[in-house]
Write a structure and sequence with these properties.
- This protein has six helices and nine strands; from the N terminus they run αββββαββααααβββ.
- The chain has 192 residues and is an alpha+beta fold.
- Strand 8 and strand 9 form a beta hairpin.
- The model has no long low-confidence stretch (mean pLDDT 96).
- The structure holds flavin mononucleotide.
Amino acid sequence: MISAEILAVLAEWLPANDDPARPLISLATVSPTGVPDSRGVLLTDYDERGFTFHTDAASRKARDLAANPVAAFSIAWPELFLQLSVQGSVEQVSPADAASAYAARSRYLQLLAWLNTAEFTALPLPERQSRWAAFDAAHPEGTLLAPPGWAGYRLRPHRLTFWRGVPLAASQRTEYTQDAATGDWSVGILPG
Ligand SMILES: Cc1cc2nc3c(=O)[nH]c(=O)nc-3n(C[C@H](O)[C@H](O)[C@H](O)COP(=O)(O)O)c2cc1C
């Protein structure tokens, strides 16, 4: 569990979970053959258990997580001289949690989750647009459930690093590390 002290810092840095503007995190995973990969995904929400994100179960990242259930992400706010880096283990969220995350997605992202297939993306643009419009019209707002491949993951952190840039001085990192045996968190200060 993330400590109350860390959650207080996260609450200052990240938007509230009900803010529709979701932050983009750069998510790194490790392939079955040990090769790292990264891509941007939306942070769905976070709480004392960890950070959740959602994706297609047929994606490369889902394949990576099945083989190596660990991940890291970073997110930076360069104009504020802030960066957060997180590392931890990953588990799938419950079907009920995945369903409610889908319901909270924007209409565009709900449609995208259904139409984001290899077959659809190979079509010419006018065909993709007409099929998109037809699917949209056939599924009025509020009627769509998550597609079968909709998958939610929770990254349970064991390390969180808060980087702060300082005017006219060296940047500094505050790093929280969880003891694997006790679950207790320790904090240290590192150079940037
Ligand atoms: C702004 C932005 C937000 C994105 N959000 C998500 C997301 O929440 N989930 C997701 O699976 N992909 C999202 N993507 C697409 C991913 O970056 C990526 O292209 C896709 O998930 C395939 O990644 P993979 O082949 O490494 O699994 C987003 C891309 C951008 C640019």
